[in-house]
Amino acid sequence: MNTRELQKTANEVRKGIITAVHGGKAGHPGGSLSAADILTYLYFDEMQNIDPKDPKKPDRDRFVLSKGHAAPGLYSVLAEKGYFPKKDLPTLRHTGSYLQGHPDMKHVPGVDMTTGSLGQGVSAAAGMALSAKIFGDDYRVYTLLGDGELQEGEVWEAAMFAGSRNLDNLVAIIDNNGLQIDGNVADICTPYPIDKKFEAFNFHVIRLEDGNDMDKIRAAFDEARTIKGKPVAIVAKTVKGKGVSYMEGEAGWHGKAPNDKEYEVAMKDLERIGEKLCQI
């Protein structure tokens, strides 16, 4: 896809996020919206051999949502890609729905790893990457972490493991929107400097100054593909709640669903963005 098509797709993914969380009357919109551009780029450009008609294709690239609470973002991009009907998004968290509050690989087509407990996803991703090395497979593994998630010790155990095993088929993306459920990550238990910490664990670090800019996202992943002998960490500066006026930069929208009026405002915001993208 070209940049404009990716931007339009990301905007549709954001609509799906809002639709899902509003329908479920619960969920995590803020960190889903901040990561929507990266998720869109991964599924519509970066990852190879992924096929909605064959979700378990052996040679597919893998994606692990380590910050599993951003499930609305993953579900929306999977629905947009065609893994399951978009009409199912509003059933998020409903009793009997396969779209649980956190991703479940046994029930959701396209989900490569069940996640939710922070820190465990990146560990699983490192294991997948090692497996590919052992068996001579050439698939790549991508995992998305939250910056608040970096407060989990297991993240750094996984980083030490990946760095020591030279897993250059592993790309960890940190959604650095600066906010977690309790407020500013720097005030709660600072993970900074994120780049230097990953470098200390033998990662090649790419500093993505605007993780909501498709061209910059493309450049970061293009660079990641050139790295040999080291895993890659992309530290992506993003805006929590990106695309919805009243959610942007607000920690309060980490894990709260919009009411009917707020839903209408959010969808109008996204409709305006979509219209602007069509005019450019």
Q: Whole-number average pLDDT?
A: 98
CATH architecture: 3-Layer(aba) Sandwich
The tally of beta strands, per DSSP, is 7
What order do the helices and strands follow?
HHHEHHEHEEEHHEHEH
Runs with pLDDT <50, length 5+?
A: none
Assign an overall shape. Answer: globular
Largest sheet: 5 strands, parallel
Structural class: alpha/beta
Widest sheet, order of strands: 1-2-3-7-6
Assembly context of the chains? single chain
Cα separation of the termini: 16 Å
Q: What would you report as the Rg, rounded to the nearest angstrom?
A: 17 Å
Helical content (DSSP H or I, runs of 4+): 40-55%
CATH class: Alpha Beta
Number of alpha- plus pi-helical segments? 10
Q: Work out the strand percent.
A: 5-15%
Provide keyphrases for this structure:
Rossmann fold; 280 residues; 5-stranded parallel sheet; two-stranded antiparallel sheet; alpha/beta
Draw up the topology in text:
Blueprint: H1 3-24, H2 30-34, H3 36-46, E1 62-65, H4 71-81, H5 120-135, E2 141-146, H6 153-164, E3 170-176, E4 179-180, E5 183-184, H7 185-189, H8 194-200, E6 204-208, H9 214-225, E7 232-237, H10 260-279
Parallel strand pairs: 1-2, 2-3, 3-7, 6-7
Antiparallel strand pairs: 4-5
Domain Transketolase N-terminal: 8-264
Keywords: Thiamine pyrophosphate
Family: Belongs to the transketolase family.
